[in-house]
Write a structure and sequence with these properties.
The chain is an alpha/beta fold and 124 residues long. It has 2 domains: 50 residues, 2,3-Dihydroxybiphenyl 1,2-Dioxygenase, domain 1; 60 residues, Signal recognition particle alu RNA binding heterodimer, srp9/1 (2-Layer Sandwich). It has 2 helices and 8 strands; from the N terminus they run E-H-E-E-E-E-H-E-E-E. The strands form 2 sheets. The protein has a 4-stranded mixed sheet, covered by helices on one side. A 4-stranded mixed sheet has the order 5-8-7-6, with helices on one face. Strand 6 and strand 7 form a beta hairpin. The radius of gyration is 15 Å and the shape is globular. The relative contact order is 0.20. The mean pLDDT is 93. It comes from Duffyella gerundensis. This is VOC domain-containing protein.
Length: 124
C-alpha cells in the first residue's frame, strides 16, 4: 500500500438557488466568488476555505435533515471578531461564541438553505 498525503479539503453543497446562495457567501460571509454561474457551479473561497456550490433545485433542503445539516468546522484565529463581522453583515447566527470545555471558543452560522457550520478558535 502506498501512503498518500491529503493536501487540502473543500466542501460541496447542493443549493436550490445558486444566485441567492452565492450572494450570501459573498455579501454576508465575506467569501470571494469564482467560476461563471452559468456553469451551474460557484466556487466560494475565503482564506484556505473552499466551498463549491452546485445548483440543485430538486435536492432535499439541508434544513430538513436536522443535526445532519452540519457540513464544516472552520478554524479561525479570532472567533469573536469573525462573529461580529458576520453579525454586522446579517448572517444567520443561532449560537454566539462560547468557550467550550474542550478548549475551543465556538459559534455556529447557517446559510439561508439550512447548511450549518461551526466556527472555532483554539484557546490553548
Amino acid at each position: 500500500m502506498t501512503d498518500s498525503t491529503l493536501l487540502a479539503g473543500a466542501f460541496v453543497l447542493a443549493v436550490p438557488d445558486l444566485s441567492r446562495s452565492a450572494a450570501y457567501f459573498r455579501d454576508v460571509l465575506g467569501f470571494t466568488l469564482a467560476w461563471p454561474e452559468a456553469s451551474g457551479w460557484q466556487l466560494a473561497t475565503r482564506g484556505a476555505v473552499r466551498i463549491m456550490l452546485g445548483h440543485s433545485p430538486d435536492a432535499m433542503l439541508p434544513s430538513a435533515t436536522g443535526d445532519h445539516s452540519y457540513f464544516a468546522y472552520l478554524y479561525v484565529d479570532d472567533a469573536a471578531a469573525l462573529y461580529a463581522e458576520f453579525a454586522r453583515n446579517g448572517a444567520i447566527l443561532p449560537q454566539p461564541p462560547e468557550d467550550k470545555p474542550h478548549g475551543m471558543r465556538e459559534f455556529s452560522v447557517v446559510t439561508p438553505d439550512g447548511h450549518r457550520m461551526m466556527v472555532g478558535e483554539d484557546l490553548d
